[in-house]
Specification:
4-stranded mixed beta sheet; 197 residues; single chain; Helix Hairpins; flat; alpha+beta; 4 strands
């Protein structure tokens, strides 16, 4: 019975995350260069081909009218960054909880040897420690003046750090990398820092 509930709960979590991912807008993450020679740029301007022609024709028809942004538009603009970070954090926590659930099932399985169970227990503790360290990194980044951040670990061992900012200068990137390095004890080559407005 517990296994059915676990499967059902996991399925519902996956479906809800798929919905969140579908409705989340503004997934434009810009990687930040790690060398001082590179520059950070962000382009949110659409191509000015067909859109420009269509805009000119509508400008002529609406010349005397002024459009004011609605409250809904303002809410979408202010919630977009927080929605992105909330969604990304939820996905990372979901990924970690799924891995922990798999390890717990492995430990609870009667067919699992004592050696495999001990290995699974150790992996589960490492995942919990990683989650705690990720939370600590986010708090330290917020203490540096960034409104929000998310830290995720890829299967390749690369840690991706995305901070809420309009842009990042090289000094900020170095500071973020040093925070990650001090918490996780990984080389800078295993850390990718990017920003999301």
């Amino acid at each position: 019975m517990a296994n059915r509930q676990t499967v059902w709960l996991s399925t519902m979590m996956i479906l809800s995350l798929m919905l969140i991912g579908y409705y989340t807008v503004g997934q434009n993450i810009q990687p930040v260069p790690t060398t001082a020679k590179d520059t950070v740029t962000q382009t949110d301007k659409p191509d000015m081909k067909k859109d420009d022609v269509a805009k000119k024709s509508t400008d002529n028809t609406n010349a005397g009218k002024k459009e004011e942004p609605s409250a809904k538009d303002n809410q979408e603009q202010t919630n977009a960054p927080s929605d992105y970070f909330a969604s990304a954090e939820l996905q990372e926590k979901k990924r970690l909880s799924e891995q922990i659930a798999e390890l717990q099932d492995k430990i609870a399985n009667n067919k699992t040897s004592a050696e495999e169970a001990a290995k699974a227990q150790k992996q589960m503790e490492e995942l919990q420690t990683l989650s705690d360290k990720q939370d600590a990194i986010v708090e330290q980044i917020k203490a540096e003046g960034f409104p929000d951040a998310i830290v995720s670990k890829e299967d390749t061992g690369i840690y991706k750090v995305t901070v809420q900012a309009q842009d990042l200068n090289p000094n900020q990137v170095v500071k973020i990398m040093s925070i990650v390095k001090s918490q996780l004890n990984v080389p800078n080559s295993n850390v990718i820092v990017s920003y999301h407005p």
